[in-house]
Structure formats: structure tokens, C-alpha cells
């Protein structure tokens, strides 16, 4: 039985800890500098598992692993007695023009993605409170949404209930090695012995790699998560159209909005939030008492791989593995399964 230390209790690390703890073949430790799981990028993520959003279709490799990840969440949700998400009516998305939306639908279908074409009457039936109904939209009935930070916390808790040690509030300073293999983790307080270390720290992976280990190419994609408050009836689906991606939050009268954040634009975050709220008010004129509840930025890791998935050994050090992905929430079950396979 190997001692396995997973660094990073975001959604990727938490899914992996859950997977390995339930398997029971190793002694698992999940460690994070935060005081609980899901407090980093995962806690500021939109949490929409989809393949229909965005102008460009995913690559065939990315589409395949995202479909695998979506199936993996059904398994996780069953294991946690339905506590990760509740299946609903999915999501709808559309582009600026009907022809662009039709092309988007055709591209997704060519990749084997389950998507339905909805006319205006269908859209009005599924989203009766949407004021600006497009003539055509893509409907993904199996799309789901969850709160990644909360999901990470629940998965980590489940890992603890199945024997994993959860160490929060401990910053990892480095990886201890001897004779070309991992021997433990170095924290400010102590050295934690381990035969296997998995770095699930997103854009922070390179900082923790021992000298001589080539860092993988991992970019950063800043994204804003904006929480809006408004009172009144609204669709329960996720909606993605020109200028806005929005979905209901689990809290009453709260909505989550995802937006690309470009620091070079020098636009303040509150200005971006106000812009998105204005679009939401136009879409849902019957909602009242609008206000911005919160807004934050997350630096999402983007591995430069064809599929967006990074789950592999770190070259040169035995027992050291790297785990991250883009979109990390969607790919977490895939990454966990691949890392678990490498440990067999």
C-alpha cells in the first residue's frame, strides 16, 4: 500500500482523492493551503458541463474526453446519493444569427454531441421568461451545472469518510526526493512521507516541480464569475447567447454569470459585472430588484494538449504525477481515472 499525497483540493484533486479512497488500495492524503476544499479556482468556476457553448466547436479529442467526463459525473453523483447535481432540462445556446446557430448545431452533431435544434416556439416553451427569443437555438438536454467548490468539498469529505487524511491550512513548499524518486512533501511545519505525489495545483504546478524536471506547458485563462440577485420567475436552464452566459444558482433569487476576463482591456471588474447585468435585465424584464451580489476572477489552467487533459507522470522523478485540465471541472473524472490507472 503506497502513501499517496494529492496536492490541491480543488475539483480535480477532490475527485481523485474520492476515487482512490473508495478504491482502498493506497493510503491517501489530500492537502491544501486553504482551510477547506474547493476554495481556489474551483470555488470561482461557473460549473456548466457543456459542449454547446461558444462559437467554436471543441476538437474531436476534446469532445471525446468531455463526453467521458460527463458520464463520469453520473457515476460520482450516484456514489454521493445525488448530492452533486440534480438533472434538469439542460441548456440552450444560440449565436448572433440563425445561420451561425445552425452551423454551430451541425458542427456539434458531426462530433457526436447530443444536441437538438429548437425553433422559437420550442424555446419559449422551455424558457418562458426569456424576452428576446431567438429564431433557432441548440438544446443540450444532458447538460448539467453544479457548484464546483461545493462539489469539491463534498467529494473531499467523502474521501475522508473512506479513510483519506484531509490536511487543510498547510502550504506545500516543495517535493522531497532521493535517488530519482519521490520521498515526501515539505511543508512549513514538517515533511510528509509519501511514495507518490500528485500535483493537482493548476497553474501552480510548475512552482512545485523539483529541479531538473521539465515543466509542462500550462497557460492561464482568466475568467470572471459574477453573481447577480433578482426577484421573480426565471428559466431553470443554463442560457448562452450573444453577450451573456447565465444560469440559476442553487440559492433562491441568485444567478451566476460567466465572462471572459481580459486584464489588458483595463476594464474594471465591476464595470464588466454591470454590463452583464444590463444584458440579463434585457433578457428577463419581469425580474425585479436587480443587483450585483459578487464578482471574482479565477485563473483557469490550460494545458497545451489536444484534449485539454493533463494526467501523466512527471519525467525524471519516479512517483510524481501531474493532474489538471481545461475545462477542469468537466475533465476531473477523466483525469482522476487516468491517474488511478497509472498507479495500478
**Biggest beta sheet summary:** 8 strands, mixed
The CATH homologous superfamily of the largest domain is termed FAD/NAD(P)-binding domain
Distance between the termini: 11 Å
Strand order of the largest sheet: 5-6-4-14-15-16-13-17
Question: Unreliable segments (pLDDT under 50, ≥5 consecutive)?
Answer: none
**CATH top-level class of the largest domain:** Alpha Beta
Mean pLDDT: 94
Individual helix count? 8
The SS-based structural class is alpha/beta
Order of helices and strands: EHEEHEHEHEEHEEEEEHEEEEHEEEH
Radius of gyration: 21 Å
Protein name: D-amino-acid oxidase
InterPro entries: FAD-dep_OxRdtase, FAD/NAD-bd_sf
Pfam families: DAO
GO molecular function: oxidoreductase activity
Quickly describe the structure.
With 344 residues, this protein is an alpha/beta fold. It has helices spanning 11-23, 60-79, 98-110, 120-126, 148-161, 205-208, 269-283, 328-343; strands at residues 3-7, 27-32, 48-49, 91-93, 116-119, 136-140, 144-145, 165-168, 172-178, 181-187, 191-193, 196-199, 218-231, 238-241, 244-248, 254-260, 288-303, 309-313, 320-325. The chain has two domains: 3-47 and 149-217 and 304-343, FAD/NAD(P)-binding domain, CATH 3.50.50.60; 88-143 and 220-301, D-Amino Acid Oxidase, subunit A, domain 2 (D-Amino Acid Oxidase, Chain A, domain 2, 2-Layer Sandwich), CATH 3.30.9.
